[in-house]
Amino acid sequence: MSDSVFMGCPILASAGKLTGKPIYFDMALRHFRFMQKLCLRPDGLYRHSPLNETAWGRGNAFPALGLSWTLLNMPEGHPGYGEMVQSFRGLMSALEKFQDRDGMWHEVVDDPASYAEFSATAMIATAMLRGVSRGWLDASYLERARVAWRGVLTHIGPGGELVDVCESTGKQKSKEDYLNRAASFGKDARGGGMAMLLATEMEAAAK
Question: Does pTM top 0.85 for this prediction?
Answer without folding.
Answer: yes
